[in-house]
Fold this sequence. Notes:
Blueprint: H1 3-29, E1 47-48, E2 51-52, H2 57-73, H3 81-90, H4 115-134, E3 146-149, E4 155-158, H5 165-186, H6 189-193, H7 202-205, H8 212-225, H9 250-259, H10 265-282, H11 285-319, H12 328-340, H13 349-360, H14 370-384
Antiparallel strand pairs: 1-2, 3-4
Amino acid sequence: MNLSKNFFYITFLLAAPLFIVSCDKDDDHHDNHDHTHVVAPATYEFERNGESSVSFSGQTCRLQMATDIYNAMNDQNAFTAAEFETMFSDGTGFDFAYDCGKNIGSKTSAGQGSAVAVRQQFIDMFTALQDVYANWDNIATVGTAGYITTSGNSTYQVDAKGLEIDQAFIKGLMGAFVVDQISNNYITASKLDGGCNDPSDAACLDGDNYTEMEHYWDEGYGYLYGYNNEHVGGTDNNANGPAEGKGVLVNKYLKKLNDGSHPGIANTIYDAFKLGRAAIVAGDYIIRDEQAAIIMENLDKIIAQKAIDYLSGAASTLADGGAREDTFHGLSEGYGFVLSLQYTSYFTNLEVTSMLDQMMEGDGFWDITVDELNTMVSQIQSVSGL
């Protein structure tokens, strides 16, 4: 045996025990980790000292603000662009006097480097809406805002390129607001590990009945389930089922997927939220992070599947010779879900921006082609595996 081979052989023998120990340690923390000591409750209800330790009232407030802005966008001349921006960015100026001190703007696209540019996209929608208001009673034509009437006699207000601004806004918030805050913020290990989790430490509770880590997880939960049919002032309803479809944001579309193409997805997400919260109480952060991964994966599916559904639906209508106006509503929803894709694990901001630009190039929805739509659908399907 030559010296170089002999040196390699001796080095390998010395390193092998370290390698084995390293692998065994990794297995202990993942594949062989004991899950049986953490039990999820039947519903998302947790108590400490006989009182609820769950709180997500801030999320309820923000979800209702988003709903109020969306509803107002459907009323001609409801607000000026500046007034809409104040509602969005400052959380004031609503017909209902919110006193929660929250807003939507600071929580929109907060988890990525393109945050300022994306927030501006939403603010620009309020400006674009003013042209729609000005042409509210006019029939929309190529290059001119107004209303379109479908073959089913539904009427929609669109901009000069056929886009419904309100749909782009609310569907865009699915990712930029809801998924971003859940998947890219509150249930990430970096966020959770930055919060204390010792209920015996008064400083950790800070006068509340929950630890910081518990509260972060609850806030993530609240962005999906926190909408309350009552206006702010209603209590957190933690006993809600996993797929009630409340509100106009992601919970609505979770129910649609659960009732359609992805049966069981609602229970998968809800169960993961429950078990993840129970793991935090038990101090088991391996189980916590496993449940967070399940939640993230399935929220991504909601966004991607709806983008696919709306774009492919429009492509099918056009391919079958349907009226172009029959596609505008679905394409507007699809536009918002495509915007949302950059907050999933599937696409970057640059990739999404390219797709959005393609949808709006030329005369927008007035001349988008079946091939263009099918290409985007194939791209999303290929990356997401859906």
